[in-house]
Design a protein that fits this description.
Blueprint lengths: L1 H30 L2 H14 L9 H17 L16 H19 L4 H12 L7 H32 L12 H14 L3 H11 L2 H5 L6 H24 L1 H4 L4 H16 L3 H20 L1
Amino acid sequence: MARTYKFEYIITIISLSLLVSIAWYYLYLMASHPSMDGMMKSENSMSMSMDSIEMDSEQTNSMSMESTEMNIGNKSINFLMMPMTGEWNFNDFIVMNTMWIVMMFAMMMPSTYIFLNLFRLMRSKMQTVKYPTLELSLISLTYFIIWITFSISACTAQYYLHNNGLVDMMGTLKSNTVSSITLLVAGIYQFTNLKQACLEKCRNPLSFIMGRNIHGTKDIISIGLSHGLYCLGCCWSLMALLFVNGVMNLTWVVILTIIILIEKLLPFEQLSSRFFGVLLVIWGLYLLI
Protein backbone atom coordinates (compact mmCIF):
# COMPACT_ATOMS: atom_id res chain seq x y z
CA MET A 1 0.00 0.00 0.00
CA ALA A 2 2.85 2.42 0.88
CA ARG A 3 4.51 1.84 -2.49
CA THR A 4 1.23 2.45 -4.27
CA TYR A 5 0.68 5.68 -2.38
CA LYS A 6 4.25 6.81 -3.13
CA PHE A 7 3.67 6.20 -6.83
CA GLU A 8 0.41 8.14 -6.68
CA TYR A 9 2.20 11.00 -4.92
CA ILE A 10 4.94 11.15 -7.56
CA ILE A 11 2.36 11.24 -10.35
CA THR A 12 0.47 14.02 -8.56
CA ILE A 13 3.60 16.11 -7.98
CA ILE A 14 4.74 15.70 -11.58
CA SER A 15 1.31 16.76 -12.81
CA LEU A 16 1.22 19.78 -10.49
CA SER A 17 4.77 20.76 -11.45
CA LEU A 18 3.81 20.61 -15.12
CA LEU A 19 0.85 22.89 -14.43
CA VAL A 20 3.12 25.26 -12.49
CA SER A 21 5.52 25.39 -15.46
CA ILE A 22 2.63 26.19 -17.81
CA ALA A 23 1.48 28.91 -15.41
CA TRP A 24 4.91 30.53 -15.37
CA TYR A 25 5.06 30.33 -19.16
CA TYR A 26 1.70 32.08 -19.37
CA LEU A 27 2.97 34.87 -17.12
CA TYR A 28 6.07 35.17 -19.30
CA LEU A 29 3.98 35.43 -22.47
CA MET A 30 1.77 38.08 -20.90
CA ALA A 31 4.71 40.08 -19.54
CA SER A 32 6.55 39.93 -22.87
CA HIS A 33 3.53 40.83 -25.00
CA PRO A 34 4.32 43.71 -27.41
CA SER A 35 1.62 45.80 -25.74
CA MET A 36 3.69 45.90 -22.55
CA ASP A 37 6.37 47.99 -24.30
CA GLY A 38 3.71 50.38 -25.47
CA MET A 39 2.31 50.65 -21.96
CA MET A 40 5.73 51.39 -20.47
CA LYS A 41 6.44 54.01 -23.12
CA SER A 42 3.05 55.54 -22.48
CA GLU A 43 3.73 55.73 -18.74
CA ASN A 44 7.14 57.31 -19.36
CA SER A 45 5.71 59.89 -21.71
CA MET A 46 2.99 60.81 -19.20
CA SER A 47 5.63 61.43 -16.53
CA MET A 48 7.55 63.92 -18.71
CA SER A 49 7.21 67.62 -18.11
CA MET A 50 4.48 69.26 -20.13
CA ASP A 51 6.94 72.00 -21.11
CA SER A 52 9.06 69.47 -23.01
CA ILE A 53 6.14 68.19 -25.09
CA GLU A 54 5.31 70.13 -28.25
CA MET A 55 2.32 68.80 -30.10
CA ASP A 56 -0.24 70.45 -32.31
CA SER A 57 -3.57 70.65 -30.46
CA GLU A 58 -5.58 69.49 -33.46
CA GLN A 59 -3.33 66.46 -33.87
CA THR A 60 -3.71 65.68 -30.17
CA ASN A 61 -7.50 65.81 -30.40
CA SER A 62 -7.43 63.60 -33.49
CA MET A 63 -5.24 61.00 -31.74
CA SER A 64 -7.50 61.09 -28.69
CA MET A 65 -10.62 60.51 -30.79
CA GLU A 66 -8.92 57.68 -32.70
CA SER A 67 -7.81 56.02 -29.45
CA THR A 68 -11.33 56.30 -28.05
CA GLU A 69 -12.81 54.72 -31.12
CA MET A 70 -10.35 51.80 -30.89
CA ASN A 71 -11.19 51.23 -27.23
CA ILE A 72 -14.91 51.31 -27.90
CA GLY A 73 -14.69 49.12 -30.94
CA ASN A 74 -12.52 46.46 -29.33
CA LYS A 75 -14.96 44.02 -27.73
CA SER A 76 -12.76 40.92 -27.75
CA ILE A 77 -10.81 39.50 -24.82
CA ASN A 78 -7.09 38.79 -25.19
CA PHE A 79 -5.84 36.77 -22.22
CA LEU A 80 -2.22 37.46 -23.21
CA MET A 81 -2.50 41.25 -23.17
CA MET A 82 -2.81 43.69 -20.30
CA PRO A 83 -5.84 46.03 -20.54
CA MET A 84 -4.90 49.08 -22.61
CA THR A 85 -7.90 51.27 -21.89
CA GLY A 86 -7.70 54.17 -19.48
CA GLU A 87 -10.56 52.73 -17.44
CA TRP A 88 -11.15 49.02 -17.00
CA ASN A 89 -14.39 47.41 -18.05
CA PHE A 90 -15.75 43.98 -17.16
CA ASN A 91 -13.69 42.25 -19.88
CA ASP A 92 -10.52 43.84 -18.52
CA PHE A 93 -11.41 42.58 -15.04
CA ILE A 94 -11.81 39.03 -16.39
CA VAL A 95 -8.38 39.16 -18.07
CA MET A 96 -6.63 40.53 -15.00
CA ASN A 97 -8.44 38.17 -12.63
CA THR A 98 -7.29 35.23 -14.76
CA MET A 99 -3.75 36.58 -14.57
CA TRP A 100 -3.99 36.87 -10.76
CA ILE A 101 -5.27 33.29 -10.40
CA VAL A 102 -2.52 31.89 -12.62
CA MET A 103 0.10 33.98 -10.82
CA MET A 104 -1.04 32.81 -7.38
CA PHE A 105 -0.93 29.19 -8.51
CA ALA A 106 2.57 29.61 -10.00
CA MET A 107 3.92 31.33 -6.90
CA MET A 108 2.28 29.28 -4.15
CA MET A 109 1.84 25.71 -5.38
CA PRO A 110 5.52 24.62 -5.05
CA SER A 111 5.50 25.64 -1.38
CA THR A 112 2.75 23.08 -0.64
CA TYR A 113 4.82 20.04 -1.61
CA ILE A 114 6.07 19.55 1.97
CA PHE A 115 2.52 19.34 3.26
CA LEU A 116 1.48 16.98 0.47
CA ASN A 117 4.44 14.70 1.15
CA LEU A 118 3.77 14.52 4.90
CA PHE A 119 0.12 13.88 4.23
CA ARG A 120 1.13 11.08 1.89
CA LEU A 121 3.50 9.54 4.46
CA MET A 122 0.85 9.49 7.16
CA ARG A 123 -1.94 8.18 4.98
CA SER A 124 0.25 5.48 3.44
CA LYS A 125 0.43 3.77 6.83
CA MET A 126 -3.33 3.50 7.13
CA GLN A 127 -5.11 0.45 5.77
CA THR A 128 -8.37 2.35 5.37
CA VAL A 129 -7.06 4.56 2.57
CA LYS A 130 -8.71 3.46 -0.67
CA TYR A 131 -8.28 6.38 -3.09
CA PRO A 132 -4.90 8.06 -2.54
CA THR A 133 -4.98 9.99 -5.82
CA LEU A 134 -8.38 11.41 -4.98
CA GLU A 135 -7.18 12.54 -1.56
CA LEU A 136 -4.12 14.31 -2.93
CA SER A 137 -6.19 15.88 -5.69
CA LEU A 138 -8.77 17.15 -3.20
CA ILE A 139 -6.07 18.66 -0.98
CA SER A 140 -4.55 20.43 -4.00
CA LEU A 141 -7.98 21.64 -5.10
CA THR A 142 -8.70 23.19 -1.70
CA TYR A 143 -5.52 25.26 -1.98
CA PHE A 144 -6.65 26.40 -5.41
CA ILE A 145 -10.02 27.49 -4.01
CA ILE A 146 -8.28 29.65 -1.39
CA TRP A 147 -6.04 31.25 -4.02
CA ILE A 148 -8.96 31.92 -6.37
CA THR A 149 -10.79 33.69 -3.56
CA PHE A 150 -7.73 35.80 -2.74
CA SER A 151 -7.14 36.53 -6.44
CA ILE A 152 -10.66 37.88 -6.86
CA SER A 153 -10.13 40.15 -3.85
CA ALA A 154 -6.73 41.34 -5.09
CA CYS A 155 -8.02 41.97 -8.61
CA THR A 156 -11.01 43.86 -7.23
CA ALA A 157 -8.61 46.07 -5.28
CA GLN A 158 -6.52 46.64 -8.42
CA TYR A 159 -9.69 47.42 -10.38
CA TYR A 160 -10.65 50.09 -7.86
CA LEU A 161 -7.12 51.53 -7.63
CA HIS A 162 -6.73 51.59 -11.41
CA ASN A 163 -10.05 53.25 -12.20
CA ASN A 164 -9.39 55.88 -9.53
CA GLY A 165 -5.92 56.68 -10.85
CA LEU A 166 -4.04 55.31 -7.82
CA VAL A 167 -2.02 52.74 -9.79
CA ASP A 168 -0.63 52.94 -13.31
CA MET A 169 -1.30 50.51 -16.15
CA MET A 170 1.42 48.17 -14.84
CA GLY A 171 -0.34 47.93 -11.48
CA THR A 172 2.23 50.04 -9.62
CA LEU A 173 1.17 52.42 -6.88
CA LYS A 174 1.72 56.02 -7.96
CA SER A 175 2.08 57.40 -4.44
CA ASN A 176 5.38 56.86 -2.63
CA THR A 177 3.55 57.40 0.64
CA VAL A 178 1.07 54.57 -0.03
CA SER A 179 3.92 52.34 -1.25
CA SER A 180 5.84 53.17 1.93
CA ILE A 181 2.86 52.28 4.13
CA THR A 182 2.41 48.99 2.24
CA LEU A 183 6.07 48.11 2.78
CA LEU A 184 5.96 49.06 6.46
CA VAL A 185 2.80 47.01 7.10
CA ALA A 186 4.30 44.00 5.31
CA GLY A 187 7.59 44.42 7.17
CA ILE A 188 5.99 44.75 10.61
CA TYR A 189 3.70 41.79 9.91
CA GLN A 190 6.83 39.62 9.53
CA PHE A 191 7.43 40.04 13.30
CA THR A 192 3.88 39.30 14.48
CA ASN A 193 2.79 36.14 16.28
CA LEU A 194 0.18 35.50 13.59
CA LYS A 195 2.84 35.44 10.89
CA GLN A 196 5.01 33.05 12.91
CA ALA A 197 2.06 30.78 13.71
CA CYS A 198 1.03 30.55 10.07
CA LEU A 199 4.62 30.01 8.98
CA GLU A 200 5.04 27.22 11.51
CA LYS A 201 1.98 25.41 10.13
CA CYS A 202 3.42 25.72 6.60
CA ARG A 203 6.92 24.54 7.52
CA ASN A 204 5.98 21.82 10.01
CA PRO A 205 2.47 20.61 9.20
CA LEU A 206 2.92 17.21 10.90
CA SER A 207 1.31 18.24 14.18
CA PHE A 208 -1.45 19.96 12.24
CA ILE A 209 -2.26 16.75 10.36
CA MET A 210 -1.95 14.50 13.41
CA GLY A 211 -4.38 16.65 15.35
CA ARG A 212 -7.13 15.98 12.83
CA ASN A 213 -9.44 13.01 12.48
CA ILE A 214 -9.88 11.86 8.90
CA HIS A 215 -12.97 9.72 8.30
CA GLY A 216 -13.91 10.71 4.79
CA THR A 217 -13.83 13.21 1.95
CA LYS A 218 -15.37 15.96 4.08
CA ASP A 219 -12.52 15.77 6.60
CA ILE A 220 -9.90 15.87 3.85
CA ILE A 221 -11.48 18.99 2.32
CA SER A 222 -11.64 20.57 5.78
CA ILE A 223 -7.93 19.90 6.38
CA GLY A 224 -7.01 21.31 2.98
CA LEU A 225 -9.06 24.49 3.43
CA SER A 226 -7.75 25.04 6.96
CA HIS A 227 -4.12 24.62 5.95
CA GLY A 228 -4.72 26.74 2.86
CA LEU A 229 -5.89 29.58 5.11
CA TYR A 230 -2.70 29.27 7.16
CA CYS A 231 -0.75 29.39 3.91
CA LEU A 232 -2.59 32.56 2.89
CA GLY A 233 -2.08 34.07 6.34
CA CYS A 234 1.63 33.52 5.93
CA CYS A 235 1.95 35.18 2.53
CA TRP A 236 -0.85 37.72 2.00
CA SER A 237 1.33 40.68 3.00
CA LEU A 238 4.05 39.62 0.56
CA MET A 239 1.44 39.42 -2.19
CA ALA A 240 0.40 42.98 -1.40
CA LEU A 241 3.95 44.02 -2.29
CA LEU A 242 3.15 43.28 -5.91
CA PHE A 243 1.57 46.74 -6.02
CA VAL A 244 4.86 48.37 -4.98
CA ASN A 245 6.94 47.42 -8.02
CA GLY A 246 4.13 46.45 -10.37
CA VAL A 247 1.72 43.54 -10.55
CA MET A 248 3.00 42.68 -14.04
CA ASN A 249 6.69 43.11 -13.20
CA LEU A 250 7.72 39.50 -13.78
CA THR A 251 11.13 39.98 -12.14
CA TRP A 252 9.41 41.22 -8.97
CA VAL A 253 7.02 38.24 -9.08
CA VAL A 254 9.99 35.85 -9.25
CA ILE A 255 11.74 37.61 -6.34
CA LEU A 256 8.65 37.33 -4.13
CA THR A 257 8.28 33.66 -5.06
CA ILE A 258 11.88 33.01 -4.00
CA ILE A 259 11.27 34.80 -0.70
CA ILE A 260 8.20 32.64 -0.04
CA LEU A 261 10.14 29.45 -0.78
CA ILE A 262 13.05 30.55 1.43
CA GLU A 263 10.69 31.18 4.34
CA LYS A 264 8.92 27.85 3.98
CA LEU A 265 11.71 25.49 2.88
CA LEU A 266 15.06 26.67 4.25
CA PRO A 267 16.15 26.39 7.93
CA PHE A 268 15.90 29.21 10.47
CA GLU A 269 12.40 30.24 9.50
CA GLN A 270 12.10 33.01 12.11
CA LEU A 271 15.49 34.43 11.18
CA SER A 272 14.69 34.52 7.47
CA SER A 273 11.21 36.03 7.90
CA ARG A 274 12.46 38.70 10.28
CA PHE A 275 15.43 39.46 8.03
CA PHE A 276 13.02 40.15 5.17
CA GLY A 277 10.90 42.15 7.60
CA VAL A 278 13.86 44.40 8.43
CA LEU A 279 14.57 44.95 4.74
CA LEU A 280 10.94 45.87 4.07
CA VAL A 281 10.82 48.32 6.98
CA ILE A 282 14.06 50.00 5.86
CA TRP A 283 12.73 50.23 2.29
CA GLY A 284 9.43 51.67 3.52
CA LEU A 285 11.16 54.28 5.69
CA TYR A 286 13.41 55.23 2.78
CA LEU A 287 10.41 55.93 0.55
CA LEU A 288 8.66 57.80 3.36
CA ILE A 289 11.64 60.04 4.02
